[in-house]
Write a structure and sequence with these properties.
Number of helices: 0
Radius of gyration: 12 Å
Order of helices and strands: EEEE
Bound molecules: zinc ion
Number of strands: 4
Structural class: mainly beta
Strand content: 25-35%
Strand order of the largest sheet: 1-2-3-4
Number of domains: 1
Shape: elongated
Distance between the termini: 13 Å
Length: 60
């Protein structure tokens, strides 16, 4: 099952951008879903499309 990362590294400032998109009511995510992150440092907004590859990080 795909799930977006809770945080990403902001491309602009290197700060931490937090996921602000709420999941569906059933909690499922699908490839192609667009999720939005907001950087806590520069307040920039990032929209990312989920892909299957996002979920195979050994760190998570
Ligand atoms: Zn930033």
């Amino acid at each position: 099952m795909i799930s977006p990362r809770e945080t990403i590294v902001c491309v602009d400032c290197g700060g931490t951008a937090h996921l602000i998109t709420a999941p569906r009511e059933d909690g499922d995510w699908f490839a192609g879903d667009v999720v939005t992150y907001r950087c806590s440092d520069c307040r920039d907004r990032w929209d990312l499309e989920l892909t299957v590859d996002d979920d195979d990080s050994p760190e998570d």
